[in-house]
Amino acid sequence: MEGYVITIGITILIYMLMAGGLALQYGFTGLSNFGLVGFVAIGAYTSSILAIKGVPIPLSLIAATGLATLCAYPIGIIALRLGGNYLAIVTLGFSEAVRMTLQTEEWLTRGMHGLTKIPRLFSGWVEPSRIDLCILLLLLAINIIAFLAFRKLVKSPFGRAIEAIRDNETAARALGKDTAQFKTRSLMLGAACAGLAGGLQAHYLTFISPEQYVPLVTFYVWIALVLGGADTMKGVIVGTCILVGFLEGSRFIGDFVGGISEVKLASVRIWMIGMALICVVLYRPQGLFGRSIVRN
Amino acid sequence: MELLSIKNITAGFGSFKALDDVSLTVNKGELVGIIGTNGAGKSTLFSVITGYVSRLSGHITFAGETFDHLPIHQRVRRGLGRTFQVPREFGNLTVRENLLAAAPNQLGEKLLPLMFMGRRIAAEEERLEARAREIISFLNLSRVENEMASKLSGGQKKLLELGRLLMLGPQCILLDEPFAGVNPVLIGELSERIAELNKRGLTVVIIEHNLAELSRLVPRMYAMDRGKIITEGTAQEVLANEQVREAYMGGVI
Amino acid sequence: MTLGAYTAVASQAFFSGSVLIAALNAMVVTVAVSLFFYFWVFRRLTGRSHISLLISSIGIAFVVRCTITFFAGYDQYMIQTPITRAWNFGGVRILPTDLYVVAAALVALIGAFSLLHLTPTGRKMRALADNGDLAATSGIREKSVMLVLWMLTGAFCGLAGVLLGLKAVVVPELGFELLILMFAAVILGGIGSPVGAVIGALIFGIAQEWASLLVGPPYKIVLAFIVLLTVLLLRPQGILGRIVAVR
Q: Predicted ipTM?
């Protein structure tokens, strides 16, 4: 039981880091990044490959974060020329392109077989039974740091500028803001979070394969934001907890309602998520804790 | 002294010419109006000057520097600001934050200084706050200082836009229909503020439909019709022009 | 609007058709589903941001797909077709089924174009797309036009689903995998230009099959992505799209 709680805690925290990054991009800058999972995958594979080759995990994590951040740069350059819809499609395409590349370039990624025996965080440092707890605490610390940094960031002049761009990009440009540059930075910061989350997840799971990085993951993070409200930190945190709580909790539906096969249960779960999405958009567009009054 | 000069500008899509060989000059410290019916090309002219629409031919010079190929934000940084027909406030920021966000070249907008130069940024913020407060009281917006900008009335939003422009410390501002959708009381006030700014040395160009208010405000104006400038002169001269009367209301003014 | 709609309806459609003769059946079902979601969701989102449309579309796609998988499971299905001998056209052998697919697609396209350009409803549709407020003030009843539009979207997706099912194995992911490719094709041609979309899709389809030969099928999506980026950077309005003025 304790182990299970720790597992859920770790899942929540990993998703929360991704959600924090996306909140920065969407909630505060108005960038609709539908390719979040692409950055997560880049982070995961970079860190894993390096760690397998013998690079210490902290260094490989830094490299993962760095590479994911760099990958966001060209996309940011393109964001310079595109409106919201295009960006959504381009990023979605990006994440699928990443996944396909990971699947095909077997010499590097072992393709569909996935990478196994990824070094675990803390292994050799603490006794095996305590590893999960340590990972949980590490993630908690990283999340606290990240969210404190977010809070400081959105209250800073930089935060004011990206919020201005979100509210009305044309006006921000009319005031001499190099909006493309702000968007690129925001995209890169969010990608850094995603990359770091991906790397951490890989070192927790010790096994990754391309099919873990399907767009569904991106949608999950979006759902967390839409539920909680994308433009407050509280919304992001609560949204993520609700999402993971539901994803994990709904596994037990089968225990209460008899006669449903595993496959059907999976369908029911995603069906409910879809329904929740529609209902939130229809009846509470700003999310549970969102504060936006207007959105263009 | 010439501040803004536009020479033989043409712009449009395909065979349609939104601007057809338009030339005009604005001197430093001047207050100039541009009138014309809907679709005469006034807003397009502003968009070309500020870089939102690209020109097909012609030249734009501002303060002795060619503007032909500068991106939008660079033009603003050279001291040329504009407002829009429809107010474009930052709806989820307060009035004060709207003004603060407008200030150019803030150190705190860069990520690295944000991490390492906290004290200098705090000092900068204080300076900006003081400036914003000054402008807010100049525009009589103190009462709504901490309101979300989206909650303001149409006229207040226009004032707010003007305030944001002032944060830039511009040399010249282009106002796109500042009186449209503003109640009569505020029109008077807005007009007064614009005149006051001009008196302090700011160059102003105004597009306006409200001829009565405009002719009271500006000593010199241009009239446009179907992408061309048809005449130029004092308000009386322009409004007396046969072509202008024809274009405007079929001769009824 | 249609952009968001695609996401939803595309995924919902590809599945309903399962028997060759029941193509009509499939279209009726997709039309009904499409109308249902129009009335329930999209009608109320008029004037809201594109992102909320997109998100609710994803929601709808989830709901529809899961309803299907709940009853049909994740197994693969085939649409049964009579086995026929290939016809021989001067050395090029073509399966009759392929011809039927092409013919059906052509007929549908011609139908759509004549509707869009020759009938009053089509004209209204284009007016709405250009400027909703203006169209409304000139007495076009948005509701009835949207109704037709959504019925059409539903029917098209249904048909596309059946045609696709004829050529490929039917799995729940069918729609989703195509989505990015579809968007790429539409952007390539220019959003808001049906002819552009068709040309875009054609160029795209050919380029893709050709690329599969060169670099292998998995890179289809990568290619789609590259094409998408190139077009957006060089010509953001697409091949036949128009520039929209900013006020």
A: 0.79
